[in-house]
Structure formats: structure tokens, C-alpha cells
Design goal:
With 448 residues, the protein is of the alpha/beta class. Helices cover 38% and strands 14% of the residues. The strands form 3 sheets. It has a 6-stranded mixed beta sheet with strand order 4-5-13-10-11-12, sandwiched between helices. The N and C termini lie far apart (69 Å).
Length: 448
């Protein structure tokens, strides 16, 4: 593919704006070091006139690209030829209208929707991004790959890597990863390196390792990963009968999802495929609230791409001086230097977004509420419902607005937290097992 083709990469820094071919695996602008976007020459792509045209692909599901919940929207992420596209059946997710949880948190019963990304092959939303990034890896002929992870990225990378025949190394922080996720990376055959440090340390190391050894990087710095994650929004719109919700609520960690969602809506609007952009709420954990603090207190803005770098540099310099490391029970989002910060600021601008942080206690109770009335999720995902409760109480979201919460990971990802919450009676919805003697009468008495 050359620069005259349908897709190219472009630096998000307006003072630079350098462009590169999609054949390059670079992940940061070689000229200025900023993030890169995948961009399209839409006039060279046959995009359907209306989103509902994509529904036709349900009838051709024997074609594996039409079966994929990512690739059946392929005209909207048209950066590689079909023969390079890899798929393991990702994106078969459901959007559940959940009136029980809606009522519990004071919404109109038909207004709350839960997007279950835990139904993906590796149990989290990451598979949406990996199918796209691995397709790019195949396109550029990568032979080995790596990522840093709080757990889900490593599970997903390990799964796609063995599917594609790529050598795979994952970096995790010591003691910072939920067991369900660690077991996946090991079982899928990845070389798993546990660094004495946190996720942010791993993120830095993996970039240097990839540069040194010429390995393909699969963190969300990779612009093609975010292209795949856009489809989570397409599926929400699809499942709402091709209507846009009023709000998207998403947990914020490395800020890949929020960035991808903002880009999805920006493009759909530009293409005239939607008439309005939903608002977005990004929810941090209180122990890892860089975005919330920078946006709400330090007033950091996208500002047409002219982000005030000094605010960010001063903020991180203070972290370094204090040897700060983030802490939250939602280990997936235990991140203090989110790599997609600037793209997320753009998403906030596009979606008139809000950000806030919730406590671990709120996350655990929200998680148990989702488990009690829904299909369950891991702690980071439950930050959405915890945050939504605040936004309703503060009047930012009204009870009759249609809200879609993205539940990013499966309940079984972090079994320890769930077991402790219930067994140790840690919260409002604790439901511990009842010990019974091995005696029929006594057992019946307990059930009646
Ligand atoms: N929810 C879950 C379950 C996650 O695993 C992550 C990120 C997030 C939310 C945050 O998403 O980074 O797009 O803002 N997990 C990454 C990992 C960091 O390494 O698995 P984000």
C-alpha cells in the first residue's frame, strides 16, 4: 500500500502532522514522538450509505470476516487487505437492557444497557483491538511481538500470537495481575516476564525492548489496535436498532477505549452515518485518577491538538519525585501515566465528555450488583455503574437518558476479588456460602 492508497498513518500533533504508510510499524511519530492515528481517504473506500446496510452480513456468516463482530464493519477500518486479516470469532457480544440494575440505581427501567465485552474469546474487549493489530502485524510481516499489561492485554496477545504463529513475550508488574489473566498468558504459551515494578514501568520497558529487538508492539499505542476497538461502538449502535445512545460510560486505564470510541464517533459523523454524537463518561479508580485530576482540576484540554504539555510534564515530574505508584483493587486500570492521554482529550472534546473517579468500595459493590442482576464482570468494568450512580446523583445524566455501559472484562478474570468480597462479607451485596452439616433435615431447614 502506498500513501495514495485508502489508508495512511498521521501524527496527531498539529504542528507536525507527518504522514506515513500503513506498511510501517512505528507506533509513535518518528519526527516528533507523538501518537499516530490511522486515517482514511474515504473517497477511495466503498462505505455503505447507512449503518444498517452492515446488517446484510448476518446472512453471510459462513464467511469468517462477516462472522467477526469487528471485520463485518471492515469498510470503517480499511487499512489492510482481506488476505492478511486474522480472526478467531471476536466481537460476538450482546448489549443487554438491564431494568433491574436501572431500578436499583434510580434510572428508568428501559434506559440502561450493558455491553458485555467479557464474551470475547479471551474474555475481554481487548480481542477487538488484537484482531486488527495482528492483521496489521501479518501485513508488515512481523515475526515476534510483545506487550506490557495489567493482564487482559497479555491474555489476548498470547491467544492471537499463537493463532498467527508469532513469538510472544508479555510484561507484567509483580503482584499486580489478577490470576485468571496470568493463567491465560501462561496457558496460551507466551513468555511471561514479571518485572519488579508496576504497569507504567512495564510500559516503558516494553517500548525499549521492541525498539531494540525489532518486535511488534501490541499496546494501545498501536493505532491499528484502536481501529478494532471502534467496533464496540458500532455494535452498540447496531443493537439499539442503529440508533445512537445518549451516553457511553467506559472505565479509563491506558485510555485506549475512550480514544477509540471518540474516533469512531468523529468518523461516523464526518461520513454522515450518524446525526449526533453521544456524550461519554470516563471513569477512573480513585487510586489511579490521573485523567480525572488533569481534566477536572488542572483544566487540561485538547485545544485543537495544542495540548499544554507543561501541565502533563509537571504532573508526572511530581509522581517521579514522590515515587508514586497507583493502587486500586481494579488492577486492570491501575495505571498512572496513560499512554493515550492526548487522544482521550480529543475524545472528550468530540463527545462533550466528563470524567470522574470512584472508590474501590464503590467498584466492589457495583460489581456485585452487576453480578446479582446481570451476567457479571471484573472490577474495572464495574467502575462504569459506580460512576453512573454519581452522574445520576449529580444530575449530569438524567434517569430517562439512554446509557450504554461498556463492561470490559469477564467476571472470571479476577476470581479472588469476588470470592473475598462474598466470603469475607466485605460489602452491601455479600452472599457468602452457608456451612451445613451433612444431614438432610438440617439442609432443608437452611433452604426453606
Ligand atoms: N477494563 C479492563 C477489563 C481492562 O483490562 C482495561 C485495560 C481497561 C478497562 C482500561 O481500558 O486502557 O482502554 O482505558 N487493560 C490493559 C491491560 C491496560 O493491560 O490489560 P483502557
Amino acid at each position: 500500500m502506498s500513501m495514495t492508497d485508502a489508508a495512511y498513518q498521521k501524527c496527531i500533533n498539529p504542528d507536525c502532522g507527518a504522514e506515513f504508510s500503513c506498511q510501517e510499524a512505528i507506533f509513535k511519530c518518528p519526527k516528533c514522538g507523538e501518537l499516530l492515528d490511522a486515517r482514511y481517504n474515504w473517497d477511495k473506500i466503498e462505505v455503505p450509505n447507512k449503518l444498517s446496510d452492515f446488517a446484510k452480513r448476518w446472512s453471510t456468516r459462513d464467511n469468517k470476516l462477516d462472522f467477526s463482530g469487528v471485520w463485518r464493519f471492515r469498510e470503517l477500518l480499511n487499512f489492510c487487505p482481506d488476505e492478511n486479516k486474522v480472526t478467531i470469532g471476536e466481537g460476538q457480544t450482546i448489549l443487554q437492557q438491564n431494568s433491574a440494575i436501572a431500578q436499583q440505581i434510580g434510572m428508568k427501567p428501559d434506559c440502561l444497557f450493558l455491553e458485555y465485552e467479557g464474551l470475547n474469546p479471551s474474555g475481554s474487549f481487548k480481542d477487538n483491538g488484537m484482531t486488527a493489530a495482528f492483521s496489521h502485524a501479518m501485513m508488515v510481516g512481523a515475526k515476534s511481538c510483545a506487550c506490557a499489561s495489567t493482564g487482559n492485554t497479555s491474555a489476548s496477545v498470547a491467544l492471537y500470537a499463537h493463532h498467527c504463529g508469532l513469538k510472544c513475550t508479555v510484561f507484567i508488574g509483580s503482584g499486580r495481575i489478577a490470576f485468571g489473566k496470568l493463567s491465560q498468558a501462561m496457558d496460551y504459551g507466551a513468555k511471561t516476564i514479571q518485572i519488579l515494578g508496576d504497569f507504567d514501568d512495564c510500559m516503558k520497558q516494553v517500548q525499549d525492548v521492541c525498539t531494540n529487538l525489532g518486535m511488534y508492539l501490541l499496546n494501545s499505542l498501536n493505532p491499528f489496535r484502536l481501529e478494532g476497538q471502534k467496533t464496540i461502538m458500532y455494535r452498540i449502535i447496531e443493537q439499539l436498532g442503529w440508533e445512537v445512545p445518549d451516553w457511553i460510560v467506559v472505565p479509563g486505564g491506558n485510555l485506549g477505549n475512550s480514544s477509540a470510541f471518540g474516533k469512531a464517533f468523529m468518523e461516523l459523523k464526518e461520513l454522515g452515518l450518524i446525526d449526533r454524537v453521544p456524550r461519554m463518561a470516563i471513569i477512573n479508580a480513585a487510586g489511579a485518577d490521573t485523567l480525572t485530576d488533569l481534566v477536572n482540576n488542572k483544566k487540561l484540554l485538547w485545544n485543537d491538538g495544542n495540548v499544554d504539555q507543561k501541565i502533563i510534564d509537571d504532573y508526572y515530574a511530581d509522581f517521579t519525585a514522590r515515587n508514586f505508584s497507583p493502587h486500586t483493587c481494579a488492577s486492570a486500570i491501575e495505571i498512572s501515566r496513560p499512554v493515550n492521554l492526548k487522544k482521550c482529550l480529543r475524545a472528550i472534546d468530540v463527545c462533550n465528555g466528563v470524567v470522574l473517579a470512584v472508590t474501590d468500595e464503590e467498584i466492589c459493590d457495583a460489581k456485585a450488583l452487576i453480578g446479582k442482576f446481570g451476567l457479571g464482570c471484573e472490577p474495572a468494568s464495574a467502575a462504569t455503574i459506580a460512576g453512573l450512580k454519581h452522574l445520576l446523583a449529580d444530575g449530569v445524566i438524567s434517569p430517562d437518558e439512554r446509557v450504554a455501559c461498556v463492561l470490559t472484562g469477564h467476571l472470571l478474570k479476577d476470581p479472588d476479588l469476588t470470592v473475598n468480597y462474598h466470603k469475607e462479607k466485605q460489602g452491601q451485596f455479600s452472599n457468602p456460602p452457608i456451612e451445613a452439616p451433612n444431614d438432610l433435615d438440617e439442609i432443608i431447614k437452611l433452604i426453606k
